[in-house]
């Protein structure tokens, strides 16, 4: 999996490309753990090219939820493929996390 970063003054966007499984989740966790991530008001996760997410990948996001909330950083997912979105729904994570259809909606939050 590849992770591409884009930043603006208040927003960090991570574009995920490939499969988020046990091995690649370490890479994502490393990115989200960096102290400077909390300097942004929003962390947007572009899932357009995310083909698969395992429990380890979901665990990375879950493990950072409280840290982001405590720092008042919004975590927003967008462009999620239906099969990936279904995993979030089945596990009830769509109620815990903000998931919107488009980048425009994610940026507007």
UniProtKB/TrEMBL annotation:
<comment type="similarity">
    <text>Belongs to the anti-sigma-factor antagonist family.</text>
</comment>
<dbReference type="Pfam" id="PF01740">
    <property type="entry name" value="STAS"/>
</dbReference>
<feature type="domain" description="STAS">
    <location>
        <begin position="1"/>
        <end position="109"/>
    </location>
</feature>
<protein>
    <recommendedName>
        <fullName>Anti-sigma factor antagonist</fullName>
    </recommendedName>
</protein>
<dbReference type="InterPro" id="IPR002645">
    <property type="entry name" value="STAS_dom"/>
</dbReference>
<dbReference type="GO" id="GO:0043856">
    <property type="term" value="F:anti-sigma factor antagonist activity"/>
</dbReference>
<dbReference type="InterPro" id="IPR036513">
    <property type="entry name" value="STAS_dom_sf"/>
</dbReference>
<dbReference type="InterPro" id="IPR003658">
    <property type="entry name" value="Anti-sigma_ant"/>
</dbReference>
